[in-house]
Amino acid sequence: MNASSRACTVIVRTRNSARTVGQALTSLFSQDFRDFDLLVVDSGSTDGTQAIVSQFPHTWMRWPPDDYFPGRVLNEAVSRTSAAIAVFLNSDCILLTPRALSRLLSALDDPSVAAAFARQVPRPDAWPHVRADYARAFPGSGDAPRWLPLSLPFAAIRRADWLEQPFYTKAWGSEDTEWGVRALARGRRIVYVPDALVLHSHNYTLPQLYGRRFIEAEADAFIYARAATIGAVLRRFASGWARDAAAAVAARDPRDFAMAPIRRAVEGLAVFRGGRLGDRRRRMRDPDAGAGQRVALSRHESSSPD
Which has the least CB within 10 A, 9, 125, 190, 256? Predict the structure, then answer.
């Protein structure tokens, strides 16, 4: 695939992203590869996000905030594009090198590759346990772990593969993981590109952490056709607590050390409850994902401007 055939549409989703979206778009328009269109999907920003985005060439797509559902939003966004490749960039994700986009796209030169995703490095203010988690998920070389088939904060998907396999809408979360699992099952390849570097991480509050883990566990019940058992939750609690404690000790951060068991207990409760909800919905073929949606949106960091 030559440079001209890598033409793509970059899809950026925003809601109350004024703190970060300017940096994200500045880094995007500073890339050495510029053959892209920008589609910004905004779901009800009230904090000046739209004024910042207006400084860059783009097309708007507006979405009602109360009806925000990742799979549906992404499917509608990609359906409005015509380029051979759809690139996804989070509004709080900053490209760290001028070749990050071209490096990402080069992975799709191989026609057997359906998608590619970048290495995410944590922000300077990331807590020790966040840094440890990102180091596990996004190594500096080699492949990403098998439990992370795709991560959309900065990723590229071949549009033909999306047409074959749109994003799922059975549950609110983990649309990237589910897409990756299905693509791999179809015999398609997904490539992790460690030299496509982006800055991206979150220091979740306890309510935000609960919401995220709840919807991930609900989604896992659909993706892997299983629910989280009490034994699995306890093992996850123990291993997570040990990793968090080790990271906090290495960073000499007593606050993060003290929060480790509380944080992992909140996570375990969310995983158990979300997994049970997802398993019940899967077995009963319940199409209503509203419960998970409410848990996610009520706790999401963009639920109110700051």
Answer: 125
Domain boundaries, the chain: 3-199, 206-299
Please tell me the predicted confidence (pLDDT) of residue 175: 96
pTM of the model as a whole? 0.93
Integer Cα distance of 243 and 74 in angstroms: 34
- 3-199, CATH topology level: Spore Coat Polysaccharide Biosynthesis Protein SpsA; Chain A (3.90.550)
**pLDDT tens-digit readout, 225-234:** 987 889 999 9
Q: Which of 56-60, 276-280, 289-293 has the lowest mean pLDDT?
A: 289-293
8 phi, psi to nearest 5 deg? -145, 165
